[in-house]
Amino acid sequence: MRPTTGQYPATRFRRLRKSDGLRRLAQENTLSVNDLIWPLFVRDGVNMREPVASMSGVERLSVDLIVQAAEQAAALGIPAICLFPYTDPAKRTEDCAEAWSADNLANTAIRAIKAAVPDMMVMTDVALDPYNINGHDGLVRDGIILNDETIEALVKMSLAQAEAGADILGPSDMMDGRIGAMRQALEMSGYKDVAILSYAAKYASAFYGPFRDAVGAGSRLVGDKKTYQMNPANSDEAMRLIERDLTEGADMVMVKPGMPYLDICRRAKETFGAPTYAYQVSGEYAMIMAAAQNGWIDGDAAMLESLMAFRRAGCDGVLTYFAPRVAAMLQNQP
Ligand code: PBG
Fold first, then answer.
1. Among 25, 285, 287, 298, which is least packed by CB within 10 angstroms?
2. Torsions phi, psi of 126, nearest 5?
3. Atom of ligand 1 nearest to the CA of 229
4. Around 210, how many Cα atoms within 13 Å sit in the side-chain half-sphere?
5. Domains in the chain, ordered, with CATH?
6. Identified catalytic residue from 202, 225, 226, 269
C-alpha cells in the first residue's frame, strides 16, 4: 500500500506530533516484553559471577545463578532466555565431544532452569565453537572447516539439548544442511515439538568480538569464519538461505547482526512472513554501553530506539543483552 500524502498547508505532519497522546495514537509500531529473548553466559562453579570486560553489565554466571536469572526473567515477563556456555579450556578438544555430553554446562543449566522455572522458554546454541580447541563453529581438518562431519556432531548436540529439556534449538553454525538433519533426528527421536530458530542469515561480522571474549573462543580462533558465515555485501543470498532453512524445517529464522542488517530483516519478513528475529549482538550492545558510559549518548534512549528499529524493520522479536533492563523499563511505563 502506498502511503497517502497531501499538500501543505492541508497536510501538516506536526499536528499529530503535538502532544504525547496524539503521538501515541499515531504510533505505528510497539515494543513489548513479549518481543525479547535474553542471552546469558553460563560458567562452572557455585555462586560465581564474573564480569565480561567488553560487555559492561554482562556476567558469566554459574548454574545456580543462571537459575536466579531465569527467575528474574520470569518475574519481568521475558518469555525466553538463550544459553551460551563458557567451557573449561581443558574440555575444548579437536573432536568437540563435550558439545554433546549430557552433563555439559549448557545441558546442566537447561535441566536446572526447567526444574525451577518450567514455563521459561530455554533456547540453546548449536555450534561447536565453545568446545573447539581452535574456536571454529565446525570441525576442522587441515585448516578446512568440514561441513558434513560437523552436521553429525550438531545432530548429536541437538538431541542432547532436547533431552535436557530445551524448547528452542538455535543453530548458529552456518553449515549447509544442518536444519534438515536436525529436524529429521528430532522427529525420529520423539522430540517433534522442539522448535528450531535458525541463524539463517548470519554474517561474518566484526561485531561478534565481545561475545567471543565471553565464551572464551576469541583468543583461540584460528583464521576467520568467512568460509561459512555470509559476506556482509550480500542480500539475495540471505533470502535463499532463509528459504532453504524454512524448507528444511526451521520454525523461526534469525538475521544476525541486527542494526547494520535491518534491510535484511525487512526483506526477510516481507518475502516469507515467517517468525523473524534479529540478534542485537555483543558489539552492538558494547557500542551503546561504551558511548553511554562516556556520556556521549543517552543509554536508555539509545537502547529503546535501537530495539524499536527492529520492530519497525519487521522483526517479531530480538535477542538482546538489554532484555532485563528494557523489560524493567517497559513494566514501569506500559
Ligand atoms: C557462534 C556464535 C557467535 C555469536 C552467537 N553464536 C559468534 C560467532 O559466530 O563468532 C555472536 C553473538 C554476539 O556477538 O552477541 N556460534
1. 25
2. -110, 100
3. 9
4. 25
5. 31-331 (3.20.20.70)
6. 202
